[in-house]
Amino acid sequence: MRDFASELEQRKQAGLYRTRRLISGRQQPVLISGGKPLLSFCSNDYLGLASHPLNIETLRSALAENGIGGASSHLICGHNEAHHRLEERLAAFTRRSSALFFSTGYMANLGVISALAGRGDTIFSDQLNHASIIDGCSLSRARVCRYAHGDVASLEGMLSETEGHKLVVTDGVFSMDGDVAPLRDLARVCRDHGALLVVDDAHGFGVLGPQGRGCLAELGLSEEDVPVLVGTLGKAAGTSGAFVAGPAMLMDYLVQKARTYIYTTAMPPALALATCTSLDLIEHGDELRAHLQSLVNRFRQEASAMGYDLMPSRTPVQPIMIGSNTRALALSHGLEEFGLLVTAIRPPTVPEGEARLRVTLSAAHSHDDLDSLLQALLDCRHLLKT
After folding, report:
1. Separation CA 171–CA 374 (nearest Å)
2. How far apart (Å, rounded) are the C-alpha atoms in residues 134 and 358?
3. Rounded CA gap, 210 and 219, in Å?
4. How far apart are CA 150 and CA 359, in angstroms?
């Protein structure tokens, strides 16, 4: 029998042990942890919609009419008018023909990838793709080739040497680095080599592009350029669940083949209606996005001036590269002493030797909040030398 206790102790000694932090109350910039207020800079609630009063009011009203649970899978008796309305709204918002509502982003990627590729096929996956994409590739049982991060020339060489059905999958915005994939070039090489392109825009949806329609809309890439778009609703949209959007035929195919869609209970209908309200807020949220970008620009300028090593990101995901697990933890703990919550990200979430603090900014933050973070970073610089 494996010595699980020893494995846990080894993780602690390597600075890789993880603990859950108990939070009470709403998701907002100031969280309550253990009765103590902490100004959070590690949430994915990029537009501050998780506690928006209009979303809450829609949910309250919808609960009275639709109840709480989905009760069954979509293919039994769980597919509610509310789910259908959200899917139509998502298709229109993303400028796609059709959309399918999944319970989580993880389940969407597992279901989509394993349905669209299988034995005898080949999947090409960016080396820094999210764990849900990696696991979807493994579950498919297709041959998986990982190409160097953002390296279109490397991918094109692999594609040119491969026969049969080919699927290329990438994050739109990479969750731990904050950079955006070279989507226009990826679309071109996929078109040239007959590969199906899947883009997971979890961290771009709601934030980038006109009206927050994501990184594909920002580049003017259509459904023809990128046939399959995955997005999550628990980040900028502030609710829960995920979606896949694309040609109606492919969405129908996923209804038949995506096991994580077929064999799970549908999400609460009331939550789908709250998400429709959230999409309205996103669509009319240019002021929120402008404020968010001003925070991003100022953080990059002032944190860099202090000597912190930032990654080339223009998104709300702003990693501070540390390298050492213990130093990353020390800086995180130091910031907490100043009343700030910024989580240390360590392997296996990121590669060995690339531990970091993943600062995430939200439109709900004020410039005074950012002042507090910048001052604490200034006061904690010495911790990087210990």
Report:
1. 29
2. 21
3. 10
4. 22
Domains (range + CATH), the chain: 19-47+285-385 (3.90.1150.10), 53-283 (3.40.640.10)
Annotated catalytic, 203?
Answer: yes
Specify the residue for token string 């920002």. 218
Tell how strand 122-126 and strand 166-171 pair up.
parallel
Active-site entry in 52, 74, 203, 365: 203
Q: What is the largest CA-CA distance in the chain?
A: 59
Tokens of 245: 């959007």
Which one is catalytic: 98, 114, 175, 332? 175
**pLDDT 10s digits, 25-40:** 889 999 999 889 999 9
What does the pLDDT look like over 134-183, one tens digit per residue? Answer: 999 999 999 999 999 999 999 999 999 999 999 999 999 999 999 999 99
pTM for this predicted structure: 0.94
- State yes or no: is 149 an active-site residue: no
**pLDDT over 90 (residue 384):** no
CA distance 183 to 199: 9
What does the DSSP assignment read for 40-66? E-----TTS-TT-HHHHHHHHHHHHHH
- DSSP string of 86-97? HHHHHHHHHT-S
CA 253 and chain centroid, separation: 24
> What is the rounded CA–CA span in Å between residue 281 and residue 128?
31
Name the token pair of 160: 């040119």
User: How far is it, in rounded angstroms, from Cα 275 to Cα 261?
Assistant: 19
- Rounded to an integer, what distance in angstroms lies between the CA atom of residue 148 and that of residue 246? 27
Residue 59, class by beta-carbon neighbours within 10 Å (0-12 exposed, 13-18 middle, 19+ buried)?
A: middle
Nearest-CA neighbor of 261 among 241, 283, 233? 241
Mean pLDDT score, 272-290: 98
Q: Which residue has the tokens 């990029």?
A: 46
> Strand locations in the chain, DSSP E?
23-24, 30-33, 36-40, 98-102, 122-126, 143-147, 166-171, 195-200, 228-232, 242-246, 317-323, 340-341, 344-345, 355-360
CA dist 26 and 144 (Å) reads 41
3-state SS assignment for residue 107:
helix
Q: Is 313 a catalytic residue?
A: no
For residue 287, the one-letter residue type is: E
